[in-house]
Amino acid sequence: MELRNRPRRLRRTPALRGLVRETRLSKDALIYPIFVREGSKIVEPIPSLDGQMRYSPDTLYLELEKVRAAGVSAVMLFGLPAHKDACGSGAWAEDGVVQQALRAVKKDFPDLCFITDVCLCEYTSHGHCGLLDGQEVDNDRTLKILAKTALSHVQAGADMVAPSDMMDGRVLAIRRSLDADGYSNIPILSYAVKYASAFYGPFREAAGSAPSFGDRKGYQMDYHNRREALHEAREDVQQGADILMVKPALAYLDIVREVSQTFELPTAAYSVSGEYAMVKAAAKAGLIDEAAIVCESAVAVFRAGADILVTYYAKELARWIEEGRIG
To answer: CA-CA distances (angstroms) from residue 84 to 118, 123, 215, 296, 321?
Structure first.
């Protein structure tokens, strides 16, 4: 049979497939989330996230050594304070848990990029991402607190801040605060498109951040909406964001694609706790090949257009890239 075009020619051997591969992964594109709990000598498993741990500031170095050995160059810190209040004062306290952690490890890990999550949900007694006015989150009053929190993180050593609260105008408030204090060189990784998702369940147990009443649909995005995602991202670009993130990742690959194609900034995606927990549970039940599923899912995110992936599998992915299982 005369066939001039035979796509299978380039699939015949591993070397040929690797040569023409369109999507390539790098360890440098991975960010590893870590939970830091206030206290000392803490290394405790997280029941909802099999294989993940909570560390205190004095034990955080144990995990960072593993991260560095894996070849992952960036981490994102989430803080769990010992005490909470209505205004989340532990978020911006000079001796807050994230601030303690940064001061404890930054000098010993100068090669790592330390990114801090900027939100109030882990710090407020009510579990919402901002200050309350009755049963509603007060957007504009919250902006001042978020800016104060971001500045305190940077003063403690953060290399980048990542606001995840979804308050209107928070990127501009943070940018102005950092610039006014001489930190115009610190980038902002904005959770620009963060949907009100059922995939966050395990994280809320891990971080102790479930709202005590209601939900977050009044400030996180409605998952039915696509055009609104581009509007949110555009707002953050105009306010001074340096990286735009879509969260969650796998259920929103169409949004990852649109954001990456519409804006010239780097696009990140967050493979969230629910995605991780489902893969772990299925692997534990013997239903899937864990490594194969994780590699395939990660490639899907980058194929959609992401430049950066935040994932609880960052260390494993880095190893699999090194082993040639993914790349």
So the answer is: 16, 5, 19, 40, 41
Do residues 211 and 127 lie in contact, with contact meaning Cβ atoms separated by under 8 Å? yes
The total of other beta-carbon atoms located within 10 Å of residue 43's CB is: 13
194: annotated active-site residue: yes
Selecting among 247, 280, 284, 315, the annotated active-site residue is 247
106 is catalytic: no
Collapsed DSSP state (helix, strand, coil) of residue 262: helix
DSSP 38-69: SSSS-EEE-TTSTT-EEE-TTTHHHHHHHHHH
Whether the Cβ atoms of residue 104 and residue 57 lie closer than 8 Å to each other: yes
First to last CA, the chain: 35
Quote the pLDDT of residue 272: 96
In this structure, are strands 160-163 and 30-37 parallel, antiparallel, or unpaired?
Answer: unpaired
Q: Are 265 and 242 spatial neighbours (Cβ–Cβ below 8 Å)?
A: yes
**pTM for the whole structure:** 0.94
Tell me what the mean pLDDT of segment 13-40 comes to: 91
Helix (H) or strand (E) holding 288, with range, is: none
pLDDT, one tens digit per residue, over 288-317 is 999 999 999 999 999 999 999 999 999 999
Contacts 24+ apart (CB under 8 A), 287-290: none
List 194, 217, 280, 315, catalytic entry: 194
